[in-house]
Each structure stands twice: as C-alpha cells, then as structure tokens.
TrEMBL record:
PANTHER family: CELL DIVISION CYCLE 16,23,27 (PTHR12558), CELL DIVISION CYCLE PROTEIN 27 HOMOLOG (PTHR12558:SF13). Keywords: Signal. This is Tetratricopeptide repeat protein. It holds the Pfam family TPR_19. It comes from the Bacteria.
Amino acid sequence: MGSILVRSLKMRRSAATAFALLALLAGCRAPEQRAAKFAGMYEAAMANNDPYTARLAMQRAVSYKDDNPDYWQSLAGVELALGNYSGAYNAYLRAQELDHSNPTVLQALADLAVIGGHTEEARRYAKQVLLLQPSDPAPQTTLGFVALRDRDYGAALKRAETVLGQRPDDSNATILKARALAGEEKPQEALSLLRDYVAGHPRDAAVLDALGDISGRFGDLKGQKDAQQHELAMRPKDKALRVNYARTLYRLGDRAGGHDLTYAMVRNGEHGGLLIDILALWLRYEPRARSLAEVRELAADAPVADRMRYAYFLMLAGAPSEAESLIAPLVTLPVTAANASPLALLAQTRAAQGRNAEALTMLDAVLSFDQGNVVALRARTDLYLRTGRGRQAVFDAQRLVASKPRAVDDRIRLARAYRLAGQPQLAENTYRAAIQDIGGADPLLFADLRGFLVQAGRGDELADLQQQFVEQKRVARSQW
C-alpha cells in the first residue's frame, strides 16, 4: 500500500559513533530539552541516510518525552524504513493514542493491519480516515486489499477502479486490480495490466514483484523469471530475491544458471541465512554426485551452524555416515539447551545407518530435556514409523501437529502413524483435516491420501479426490 511501501535505506553509520553521540546529548538537563536534542539528531541522521542512528536517537527522544505524538510518528517511520513492521505498528499505535485524528497515522495503522492479516482492524482504521478525508484514495486501496483477503474480488476490483479513476498511475491500486483479476481467474488481464504499468514505470519494485508472483502462480515461469531478473538488476544484493530467482531458473530447466547463482552465494559466504533453502534446491535439482562433492568441500571450512545444515543435506542425500562424521566431533551428551537439536540430528544420522538403539537412546535423552524439541520429535516419529511402532509414533506425531499445525509433513506423519497403529478412520480424518486446515493443494498430502484410498480398496473415490485437488489449486492461486 502507498503509505507503507518504504524503500529501505542502505547507508549505516558505525554503532560506536552513534552511541557516542547519544551519550554526549544525554548531558542536557530538562527531559523536554533532551528529547528535542535527540529529535534533532534523528533529523540529521535521516538526512544522511542513516536510519539505524535515527532509530536510536528517536528511541531516546520518546524515553524522555513519551507524550509527543510527532516523536512516536517519527519513530514509526524509521522502524518502517528498517522493515520492522511490528515496531512500526506499536509506535503508530502510541501516536494514535495521543492524537486520535491524525489521518496519516490512521492510514499507516490500516495498512500495517492488512499486512498482518488483521482485516477488521484495517477496515476500522481505513473508515476513520475516510471520515476525516472523504476524498483520500489511500483508504479506498486499503479497503480493497481487505476485500481481497476476504476473497471478495468484485469489491476489491471496484475499490481499485475508484482509485485509478483519480490517480491512473497509482501503483498500489494497479496491484490491487491485478490481484483481483487473478482471483477471478483472469490471469492474462492481470498480467497485461502489470506489464503495461512496468513499461511506463520500469523501476517500480512492488509492481515487478506482483508481476512475478502472479506469473508464477499461473505457470508462466518465463514471465516470473523476467520480472525477477528485472528486480535483481535494481536490488542485486537482495539475497532472498536471488534464491527465488535461482528457484525459477531451476524450474525452467536452467540448472547451470541456478547452480552458478547459488554456489557463488554459498562459496562467498553471502547466503544470508538462506543456506538451507539453497541446499534444498541442490537436493532437488542437482546431480547427486556433484552436489555431494561440493558440499564436502564447502563443509570443511564452514562455521559450526552451517556444518549442521551441510550434515542434514548429506543425510538426506544418502550419505548418513558422512553426516555423522561432520557432527560427532562437535556435540556430545549430556543434553544442553545449546546442543539439543544438534544431538537430535546426530541421532538421525545413526538411525539412517540402522543403528536404531543408539539413536533412540539419544533422542530419548533430548526429549527428556526438552519434550517439545521438534527435530527430536520428528526423528523419533520417523524411527518409530520405520520400525513398525505405530502407537508410539502416534503420540510423538500428535505433539508435532500441536506444535506445528501448518506443517504438511507432520500431518502426514500422524496419518501414517494412525494407519500403522490400526486406526484407519483416524488416519483418513487426519488427511481430510489437513486439506481443510492447511489448504494450498499440497501434492504430497494428496498423494498420500490417494495411496490410502487405493490400499483401502476405495479407488472409486479417486476422481472426486482429483477434482478436490484441482479446486484447491485454484483457491491457492487466489489467496494473497
């Protein structure tokens, strides 16, 4: 939305300098004077493209003068620039408490509420803006995005058209209209609208992102690639965008392009915490021999945290003994908060080698220390499933689903555990509930349920299941 599509500022002054200046300013006597000094420092920092120092300064300003709505609004703005939506929302909320009739603050709260999925709050704040400024198009856009979340595509389209009638070049209203058209299963109209906009506004990252997203949802991988490539030219250091672009390249069959991009990120230590995502791409798309060789090379000099991720890759790639040799020198009993998950991973590597008793002893120890450890619960559930212990598997899988209700693989674990325990009705209920609760037409979930029906001699139900799968995919495409 227009009021919150803030481009993050890049320049950063050293923390040492910032704290030194803050300490110097703290010598003023009256709280109001101190707050004003820090507010002045905030203005200077923002003028110098230094949002980190600006945030520190404004945090100090509000600590001395808590009842100034302008200070809170300024703090919210810099939190927004830094991508801290939660901090921005809280700061705007405080500003609104102090000044109930500021339309800028109300609009920001409305937009942030939409981003967070709080549609009723968004609707309430947007309507307050309309009462104060009936001709303002921004709340119309916000209410359109609320309608979009409610899958009321006709209402969303109407809101978008209202705004575009006043401001034909409004990027957020253009995105709203495109998403509403896509929700109505009119992807070509949506994509044409966005392409036309990009032709006239080639550096609008938000519209490019929408173009790539809608292209991908409707299977236009070439369109998705072109949009992502355009975005990367503007934001070459955006690591998440680079990984998403690599994923698109792999899906298009450009394995060399996907590999070169991701391997450079890993080799240069520029994966930005996305190593597990990159390794998942390698596991799925790269030849096993090459990826194993590269992981062995990379793991040798990797930090401890990354070695754990490489070990997990090695285990999944069918080299559990190598994974064990990578982890074993780094962790040992007794269990601590720091080593619980690595020990669970070590146990997995041993279970994958058929050393079930050793693995179970270690997993039991981890879960005695931390009964909610997800890595250990998954490893022990899988061990129980593999060794035919359905009743024990049910207990662990139930805890997993309670902890991670939207994890498809955990729902499948629970269903398989029920099947193994001789409770087929509970297994089917688990599959059906997962489809209802999670949605998204997950192919693995539907494939497992399909296998269950075939095994139960209910092949006549497969056509209905396939139709449900198709419908779920359609619904998933329309969820924004």
